[in-house]
């Protein structure tokens, strides 16, 4: 299972400053979630730019450089723990996407091809890797290409998985577009991961800070204080850079 963190801000800043005090404890999770890292940022020309490597984040000289040199007001960062049987490779590393959007997932579902009919052969042919997570992205992308907004696209793709998959552990994900950052959370309480990790393992929490930032993140390090709010299951958190508007949408 992977870990996710996203942030938006009122003013562009280096990614390291965008995450501020949350960055170091999040990157410490790479000790366990060490099968790859991926960073996506919104760039000034209104597109999305992503960089990823199939290596532990602590070993990533490229990541260290990007944290200091990439300036943005919206970003997502993913630490991968590969599902059993899936190779550690660039093609299977998150985020997935292009210059319009970047998508990162924490969880798994089976069978991997359960969304293929929804995705369609044209988009399916663009898949680089073997993961269920990339299929989740392509199902979201199918819906946005068909005209849905990101909120509805995320909810409908999750509905497809829930109704058709034999099993799933978590559908937690982050989606970054030129307009903003979106977070979705849902897990199956019957998953064996919950029995091993504990009920709160798949929670997503978010907060705003006095210095003009908003952060959403997986669990795994101390997130103390009342400023952190839990994102309700089957809801999308929409985070708008610049205005720092946060909106929770129900399914």
Automatic annotation (TrEMBL):
The UniProt record lists the keyword tRNA processing: no
Start and end residues of each Glutamine amidotransferase type-2 domain: 2-250
InterPro entries assigned to the protein according to its UniProt record, in alphabetical order: EgtC-like, GATase_2_dom, Ntn_hydrolases_N
Keywords, comma-separated and alphabetical: Glutamine amidotransferase
Segments forming a coiled coil: none
PROSITE patterns per UniProt: GATASE_TYPE_2
Name by which UniProt lists this protein: Class II glutamine amidotransferase
């Amino acid at each position: 299972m992977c870990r996710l963190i996203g942030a938006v801000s009122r003013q562009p800043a280096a990614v390291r400053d965008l995450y501020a005090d949350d960055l170091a404890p999040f990157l410490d999770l790479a000790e366990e979630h060490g099968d790859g890292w991926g960073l996506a940022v919104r760039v000034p020309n209104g597109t999305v730019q992503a960089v990823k490597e199939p290596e532990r984040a602590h070993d990533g000289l490229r990541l260290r450089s990007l944290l200091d040199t990439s300036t943005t007001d919206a970003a997502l960062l993913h630490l991968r723990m590969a599902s059993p049987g899936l190779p550690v490779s660039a093609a299977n590393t998150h985020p997935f996407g292009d210059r319009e959007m970047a998508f990162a997932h924490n969880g798994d579902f089976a069978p991997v091809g359960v969304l293929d009919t929804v995705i369609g052969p044209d988009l399916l042919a663009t898949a680089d890797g073997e993961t269920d997570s990339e299929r989740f992205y392509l199902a979201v992308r199918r819906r946005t290409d068909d005209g849905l907004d990101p909120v509805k696209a995320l909810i409908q793709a999750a509905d497809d998985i829930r109704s058709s998959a034999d099993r799933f552990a978590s559908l937690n994900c982050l989606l970054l577009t030129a307009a903003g950052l979106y977070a979705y959370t849902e897990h199956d309480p019957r998953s064996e991961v919950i029995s091993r990790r504990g009920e709160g393992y798949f929670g997503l929490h978010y907060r705003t800070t006095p210095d003009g930032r908003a952060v959403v993140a997986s669990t795994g390090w101390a997130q103390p204080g009342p400023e952190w709010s839990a994102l309700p299951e089957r809801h999308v958190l929409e985070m708008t850079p610049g205005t720092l508007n946060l909106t929770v949408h129900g399914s």
